[in-house]
């Protein structure tokens, strides 16, 4: 699920298939890989607040290490392709930022990643430092290939408190509530849900939650493990039919297909009261805080996506981005040092830096420190969601092979735009390769 790093986010795995230009980066060495200077090179995305936390971790580690860690920063636009090229060369980074799941599958298959399972087994204190569901999302086939490096990013149903108060209604507790709210807000000339439909990935999270609520998390779990027939599960067709029912009901207004999320248009609709709700990743709070601090702190409400009556999915299940990860290259000439550096991600000082940067850490110790966040109430809400979730399904475009993920997103956009029928949608995604 793509979200601009400048807007407090991370590039989704599907961008691997889209980005082709190898353009400039931060403090890295020659094009194609890290310099062979005897240091451990850690590749990260450019983000001032996060880079400060990462640099502090490197500085603390370097105080007691003869092999030094160097943080190399890259533009998010160039990073996926630059990483792909470097990992296929003799100059791969020692440690690198990634999204887990499908974003590292090709590297695992090529044998270019270090299996961190033995490390975590030998260091139970490190393994136990992170929420289990988040740690598992950084691996494949029961093995661990990544250590969480930043905060959790569940998809949340945001709403405008003033718009709800003026209409005399409450956030939806059930699917029938949600349908009733659509009618209520339409009658008041307010778009029920802001949706940046010109930015295709924004529509993905609707389908993710609907499939989960109808069929449970196991449906996509089968898909991500290679069972293409799982696309034929009744829940996928039900989700597709529900999407078009919502479109026909006017849930997203009449021009959602031309609303660009990356230009902040959908977020602005919510903040100005032109839309009542917005289904979006938890980074929406930080985006609103940057654009309209007063609205973010006093008028931006948040709740969970409701359950569906008769559905198999637990209403406490989540979808979204569990977090981002550091993985270690099998080509590293300093594997022991590279692996040892990962311990820094669980230190108190690093967790504090994450909180100061506005992230909600994925460490089990974070709960007692959420008061250090700029919005303790929202931080606690997120942490409790993730901690209590029976299942946290990784964003489909990150969990799937990049080519399949992009094909699925394209089909979802066509579904919303009614260029595919629900039945055609199922057929299209089942055939995605």
Automatic annotation (TrEMBL):
PANTHER family (alphabetical): ARABINOSE-BINDING PROTEIN-RELATED, BLR3389 PROTEIN
Q: Upper taxonomic classification of the species? A: Bacteria, Bacillati, Actinomycetota, Actinomycetes, Pseudonocardiales
Q: What name appears for this protein in its UniProt entry?
A: Carbohydrate ABC transporter substrate-binding protein, CUT1 family (TC 3.A.1.1.-)
Q: Which domain of life is it from?
A: Bacteria
The record's Pfam families line, in alphabetical order, gives: SBP_bac_1
Fetch the InterPro entries from UniProt.
Answer: Bact_solute-bd_prot1, SBP
């Amino acid at each position: 699920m793509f979200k601009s790093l400048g807007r407090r986010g991370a590039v989704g795995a599907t961008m691997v298939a889209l980005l082709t230009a190898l353009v400039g980066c931060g403090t890295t060495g020659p094009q194609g890989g890290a310099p062979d200077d005897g240091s451990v090179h850690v590749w990260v995305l450019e983000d001032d607040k996060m880079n400060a936390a990462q640099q502090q971790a490197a500085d603390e580690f370097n105080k007691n290490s003869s092999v030094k860690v160097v943080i190399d920063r890259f533009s998010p636009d160039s990073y996926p392709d630059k990483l792909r090229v470097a990992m296929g060369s003799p100059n791969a980074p020692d440690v690198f930022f990634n999204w887990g799941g499908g974003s590292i599958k090709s590297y695992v298959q090529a044998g270019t990643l270090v299996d961190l399972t033995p490390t975590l087994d030998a260091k139970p204190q490190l393994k136990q430092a992170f929420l289990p569901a988040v740690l598992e999302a950084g691996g494949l086939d029961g093995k661990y290939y990544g250590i969480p490096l930043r905060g959790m990013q569940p998809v949340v149903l945001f709403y405008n408190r003033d718009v709800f108060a003026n209409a005399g209604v409450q956030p939806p507790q059930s699917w029938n509530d949600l349908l009733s709210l659509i009618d209520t807000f339409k009658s008041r000339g307010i778009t029920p849900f802001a949706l940046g439909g010109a930015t295709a990935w924004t529509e993905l999270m609707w389908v993710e939650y609907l499939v989960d609520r109808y069929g449970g998390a196991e449906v996509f779990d089968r898909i991500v493990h290679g069972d293409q027939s799982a696309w034929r599960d009744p829940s996928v067709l039900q989700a597709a039919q529900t999407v078009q029912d919502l479109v026909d009901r006017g849930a997203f207004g009449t021009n959602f297909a031309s609303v660009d999320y990356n230009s902040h248009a959908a977020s602005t609709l919510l903040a100005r009261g032109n839309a009542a709700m917005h289904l979006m990743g938890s980074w929406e709070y930080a985006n609103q805080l940057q654009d309209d601090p007063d609205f973010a702190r006093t008028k931006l409400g948040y709740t969970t996506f409701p359950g569906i009556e008769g559905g198999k999915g637990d209403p406490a299940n989540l979808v979204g981005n569990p977090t981002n990860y550091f993985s270690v290259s099998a080509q590293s000439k300093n594997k022991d040092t590279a692996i040892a550096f990962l311990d820094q991600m669980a230190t108190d000082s690093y967790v504090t830096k994450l909180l100061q940067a506005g992230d909600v850490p994925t460490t089990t110790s974070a709960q007692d420190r959420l008061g250090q966040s700029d919005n303790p109430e929202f931080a606690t809400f997120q942490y409790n969601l993730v901690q209590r979730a029976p299942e946290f399904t990784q964003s489909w475009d990150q969990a799937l092979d990049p080519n399949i993920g992009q094909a699925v997103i394209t089909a979802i956009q066509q579904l919303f735009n009614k260029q595919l029928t629900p039945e055609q949608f199922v057929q299209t995604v089942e055939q995605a390769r």
